[in-house]
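Quick one before lunch.
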Amino acid sequence: MSLSDQDLIKELQQLIGAEHVITAPADLEPYLLDWRKRYRGQAIAALRPSNTQEVSAIVKLCVANHIAIVPQGGNTGMCGGATPNSSGRQVVISLQRLNQVRAIDTSNQTITVEAGVILQTLQEAAAAADCYFPLSLGAEGSCMIGGNLSTNAGGTSVLRYGNARELCLGLEVVLPNGEILNSLRGLRKDNTGYDLRDLFIGAEGSLGIITAAVMKLFPIPVAQWTALVATPSAEGAVELLNRFQAGASAQLTGFEMMSDESLALLKHYYPALASPLAGNNPYEVLVEISDYESSEHAMQLMESILEGALESGCASDAVIASNLAQARKFWDMREHVPLAQADDGPNIKHDVSLPISAIPQFVDTCNAMLRSKHPNIRIINYGHLGDGNLHYNVAGPSSAETEHFFTTYSKEIQALVYAEVEKLNGSISAEHGVGQQKVDYIEGHRGEVAFNLMQSIKKALDPYNLMNPGKVIKL
Ligand code: FAD
Ligand code: MLT
Ligand code: ZN
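Model of the D-malate complex:
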């Protein structure tokens, strides 16, 4: 027989301490609402364990009482994956107190961290040991490495260093039955059967709770140069990318694109971040080159590639940041586009990836189809062009109309965009994951064979469907 909620809470309090079992409505509220304010749920409690054993004990108690668990890191996810459902029969397990850097091995170039370590803290711990941890995204001041791994986060340096999956060498995971899987080995080669680690990365908490990870470190680049480049079209932006890939190869560490409407939105909400480039450019691209030789070497490379691009016409204007503050401003411009969108109201969000060669066709076709049906919409198209990843977001004609536009046209516009993605062999989730936002699209997108395999894996690991149910895949 299951415990009553009151008795369950008492047992949880005994396991992790009363002050870490949050039930008061005002204290619980932040755990029940997602960053975009699109999903709100209910929970019996939010739990803040301090170590892996406590996480394991909570999971065992919840399984014994048929209580579903929603893992939560920094709660910056874009798909409602960390938000409980509305049943009030779930608990949130926050990893925020598992926040220790367990070890740094500079010779092996690895760092072992607990899941609740904030991404920026990880970057700073690496820097303090004279190393570089490259995962970087706008939410790095609050997202946590366990959340980054669970969403297989991308961000702005994927084209050089890979996404969270590629940066991870080992994991510690509390399984849906409460057992602890420890594979915290910092090995770059290990062919001893099925790769269990990769199952949990990108699983969005649906197969277990990541409690710690071994992550790769890199040498700190000697120099970085950043430029903002205007380009006349999506085709021009792709040609510019190809020129930088050919000319700079692995030294190309950032290639981010913003459309004119993204820049207009940014200028409206953050005037100090208006583009320094003249005119109303269809697209502007932020390019970053990193160098292990010298600052002069990097600068020469940047200048010579830009010269060629300006001559060819794929670039129409460019400014190279003359100091760190200006480089920071270019990054701030890019990173504030989602913040400007949040200020503006709801938008129909697409996090798509495509073969880079297909991006001009995708953008031109979708823009034309959408504008012919809704002439005054704003297409806030920006993203990680170097990874073939666009945040192709669609908003109503003005801020005042966003809510109405969102509720009326979300389904129709999403269907149109996703149909184009499928036609071009792309993905409907490049880096944000599935969560509850895209769960109904997964069967169609992945196809029957892959979907059945995913269901079999979920059932094998989580037979009672208690680990973040309703996210990623429905049973
Ligand atoms: P949460 O939001 O707390 O959780 C995300 C998912 O992971 C949920 O399903 C949750 O249940 C699960 N989860 C969390 N922790 C664990 C754990 N320890 N074990 C098992 N499951 C867990 N994302 C990108 O990829 N690239 C970007 O460039 C980017 N930029 C962003 C900019 C802004 C301003 C914001 C607000 C978000 C951005 N994001 C980006 C999205 C978000 O930051 C990432 O998805 C991030 O990886 C989520 O981490 P989190 O700790 O906040 O996870
Ligand atoms: C970004 O690239 O800025 C993030 O993924 C956030 C977003 O898509 O809004
Ligand atoms: Zn992104």
